[in-house]
Amino acid sequence: GKGTYPTFMLKEIDEQPAVMRRISQHYLPVDQPIAIDPALIQHVAQADRLYFVAAGTSYHASLVGKRLFERYAQIPAEAGVASEFGYHWPLLSAKPFFIFLSQSGETADSRQVLVEAKRRGLPTLVITNVANSTLAREADYHLLLHAGPEIAVASTKAYTAQIAVEAVLAKAVGERRQLGAAQSFDLAGQLALAANAMDEITDNHQAWDQLAAEYLGSATDAFYLGRGIDYDVSLEAALKLKEISYVHTEGFAAGELKHGTIALIEPGVPVITFITEQATADHTRGNVQEVKARGGNVLVIASEACQQAGDQIVIPTLTDELMPLVTVVCGQLLAYYATLQRGLNVDQPRNLAKSVTVE
Ligand code: F6R
Prior knowledge:
The protein is an alpha/beta fold. 46% of the residues lie in helices and 15% in strands. It has helices at residues 8-14, 16-27, 38-45, 56-72, 82-85, 108-119, 134-138, 157-176, 180-183, 187-202, 205-216, 229-245, 281-293, 324-341, and strands at residues 49-54, 77-81, 96-102, 124-128, 141-144, 221-226, 248-253, 270-275, 297-303, 313-315.
């Protein structure tokens, strides 16, 4: 049940710090090896390329997974939308390994690719929240999210759990490959920091209600931008707002602004900008100036390492690839309150089902 919460979505947003701590306890026991089947770790470590396949929010988590595995396991990775992948198989590498992300473990688009991967004799892993789901049963390996049931149609805690579990596996595989980057990756410490930062954000519901009113109150369109890892989270934050509030949104790479989308920036248009990647922060700041010069209503969400005077939201700095654990919570709460303020059903938006079992 919802307990004392008015909606499942708010409850599930608030559960995220506890989910981070649970994943850490489960997979990263103190002074013990990472709690993942060594056969799975070995199998992934031997791959020459990883193929992530997923839909919707899970696809957005797989974009982060690609970055985590390339950095910490040093295995090239691709992330594909299941409904595209299934009908346009790429030319595969010699030793591919398939990683499916699915909260429900029932998504037909993803299952279709899994069935074909199995038919071709390719190794498969499913990362899912539901132990006895179809995908969990059909894949060679599965890893559980331990996020607890997700009831609201809009996915929240599954996304952050997916990123955390991807990070655990990337570290385990990188360690198996004896990579310094993986050995020195203090993932338990990072997940603890992320959980504390999430707590700070979710402890302050009223502030998010006000920010949503100020930036999204009367919006019919909203833009989300960022570069690199902040681009990945901008896609997810944009999906969150559009699917429950019905505000038209776009998430895009900040540098792409000048290649077309800037034509849409007019006075008052909300532009939510994520700036947590030090390597690209200055360039994104430049894009913010371009938007402001055209009257856009810019809300900056920055990490401490990237912060500047005037930034509305500043969050603790984590390693780049884990920043979405915290930045997405800001996006979730903005979407939540913008939707409540419109008097809409947050948990059950129109036209959507929790698990999509048709292709
Ligand atoms: C968005 C959302 C959907 C799902 C997508 C995949 O909030 O919930 O985009 O992420 O339908 O579902 P799963 O992860 O169950 O395969």
